Amino acid sequence: MNRPDRAAVVATAPPARLPRFTRAERVTHWVNATLWFVCIATGAMFRFGIGQSLITDRGLARNIHVIAGLGILAAFLVAVVGRWGAALRRDLARFNRFSRDDMRWLRTFGGDRKVRLGKFNPGQKLNATFIGAAAVVLAATGSIMKWNQPFSTDLRTGADFVHGWFAVFVGIAVFGHIVMAFRDREALSGMVGGTVSAKWARDHRPAWFAETQAPPEGEDPVSAGGSVPVDA
After folding, report:
1. pTM of the shown model
2. pLDDT by residue (tens digit) across 33-76?
3. Three-state secondary structure call for residue 203
4. Domain covering 19-224 assigned CATH 1.20.950.20 in the classification
5. Which residues fall within 8 angstroms of residue 128, CB to CB, at 6 or more apart?
6. Where do the domains of the chain lie?
7. Pick from 60, 54, 73, 80: which is nearest to 143 by CA?
8. Is-contact 227 27, C-beta < 8 A?
């Protein structure tokens, strides 16, 4: 019996690590994470007096809060447009697609270990969708509160109410996101260094792992989330 050529086996074997996020996606994530932290911190300062000793000037804290809040939307728009945003646009499209396995995952609160998940689990999809929608709501209500002259008292009061509660829910979502990230260090490494182990992908994202082994013809495997050899 002929033995398989060793070089052919090595060439077709999946690499030890798979590219998960491009540099543009990672920069976008960490820039937005920083801006969200600034918004939450400054909002807590002048709304609840938490950490107010760090910035005693409430007006300065409000201005920083407004700039950071508008910066979240500006940074996202810059990241999405252009060739560098191709991978991000594809990942955004994934958030709107829920498979049968995703629904099983939701029904069992993540307890069904036999589901074949894609690149993101349903919890991540819902969290990302909520954060994106909340960013728009907070920017709109915050603008009404900041530049309030054209608006009625009732509208300003309503904007303040909505802004405050959305901020609380975002804070809870961000805290939960951080906790879950540290519980899965391999997934976190994907957002820090851009790659995850092939074993993690097979075990936790089997549908996405299968996708990475057959990227679309003529498409860059890194931007598509495909497999390429990565130096350890």
Report:
1. 0.81
2. 999 999 999 998 888 777 777 777 888 889 999 999 999 999 99
3. helix
4. yes
5. 95, 120
6. 19-224
7. 73
8. no
